[in-house]
Design brief:
The chain is α+β, with helices and mostly antiparallel strands. It has helices spanning 2-33, 75-80, 104-110, 113-127, 286-291, and strands at residues 48-51, 59-60, 134-136, 148-154, 164-170, 173-176, 184-186, 195-196, 198-200, 213-215, 221-222, 227-231, 236-241, 244-250, 259-261, 265-268, 271-278, 294-296, 303-304, 330-331.
Amino acid sequence: MKKKSFKNTRLLVLLSLPVLLLAAAFFAMANSSVTTQAQASSYTLQDSWVMDVLPNGNWVDSGGDWDSSWEFYNCYSFAIGKTDSYYNPGEHSVYVLGEYNDKFWKYMDDHTISQIAYLVKEDLDKLGGYGDVYVTTYDPDIIEPYQTKICVRKTTVNNEHREFHFMKYISDAWYHKPGGTAILKYKYHPEYKNWISERSYNNPNTLDPAYYGEHLTADRIYDSQIYYIVYGESPFTTTLSGGSITITGLKSAAVINGGVEIRPTMKISGTDYPVTAIGNGAFSSPKTATDLTGIIIPVDVTSIGASAFAGCTQLGVGWKPLVIPGTVTTIGLGAFAGCNNL
């Protein structure tokens, strides 16, 4: 009996060895895919690029970079800069957070593209810190340096995938981030063509390279009207009177990096108003006085208030020379007192 048991044990060990070796090999291969960069993909991106795995700043059409944090937020989170979780428009204002988590398609059925865009505005207004937020159906080509513009589109094909998708304009192009995937750089203007569903991601749950890039054109074509949402916290404090704006100062959180440009118009609730005056003592705070090296005054300004730039000892140092437009007809007492570098 003991001898028979020994044979059975030896047979069990011999039979188990290949299984153990196979399991070890699989474990090693699986772990090799969990890296800081995506594996080579059998899919080539068509309308977007992904950041190259090499630290060269290039964008490529396959086998791009990967960051594990990308798994945990979606296109809307990316668009509004809240990348701690997946969010749907309205979950910061109208709905309970996560209310639609288990009924996403109902969310899409319940909301038109226009409603989604205005839910974004409600979210940003409720969250605070996003400044003046407005919605439009055209691309506002020129925005203030402190503003960000995003856009949203929805699938309208009558099937089960009635999704929304967001893009965000950053510096030189439009970028987007499908849920759980890498950030992509769009090759075109959003209005150039219908959007297709492209993804680039590192999936540790599969060893099939095809899953590192995915394209779902058959059921996800974004072809609705595009809505644009612009948000941004102006660095200036202002007053609006008689259809024109007076700059009264800088907000406490505003950062001055040498020079300040005052644009000819500013938006309030989505409407452009001309900037026609700089108020009394607008830039005379101790912080401004030591940091402000230059300022661009728009041509519609007709009045510069008393002590507007008083004590700005660095004004005119290392930046464009101050030019007072010919439209200015009134300069208050001591407007440039102590500005010894002008």
